Amino acid sequence: MIRDTPEAWDVVGSKHRFKGRVIEVRTDTVRMPRDEVADRDYVVHPGSVAVLALDADDRVLLIRQYRHPTRHLLWELPAGLRDVQGESLVAGAARELAEEAGYRAATWHTLVDLFPSPGMTDERIRVFLARDVSKIPDHENGFVHRHEEIDMPVEWVPLADAVEAALMGMIHNSPTVAGILAAYAASVEGYALLRPADAPEV
Predict the structure, then answer these.
(1) pLDDT (tens digit, 9 = 90+) per residue, 72-105?
(2) What CA–CA distance (Å, rounded) separates 178 from 133?
(3) Angle (nearest 5°) at CA 104 between 88 and 162
(4) Mind telling me the catalytic residues?
(5) Single pTM value for the model
């Protein structure tokens, strides 16, 4: 079976180009085969989690959010940064599902792990499958939306329709497309082959 494996080539020099609120940009001088060296620019990112919430009618929860770099309103899974010290990945995913969509889930599995753009960033995304979902009563959910998260619509889309939207180029967010296709593939085996929610990352 094919498998990605961790490996780190020698870095003989590193320059920090930019540091922002979330990301930084770095140039590493990397020793290549035959003892050559080459510069590689990349974005250092804290990582993310995303949630494919699936209800009893096999519908996927999607939210729509403005993404300034692409100048698009994108349909996406609830997602967010790994920015709470000591928080497990599944706890972060549950927090994002609650904050962005106002739902909780009783059953969690690891759906798929991604490097969304490995040629330009070290970002890792874990997409979880959340089932047995229920709406959080308004009086229990005091999260205040700001900026792009204000007035984000929440839609429940049949999984088969979401697959069609992905394949027809109607949705573009990478963890959303990957999560939808992975959930559809996993449904063939009744989700029996999925890893537990606390499965280690390679």
Answers:
(1) 999 999 999 999 999 999 999 999 999 999 999 9
(2) 21
(3) 100
(4) 149
(5) 0.92
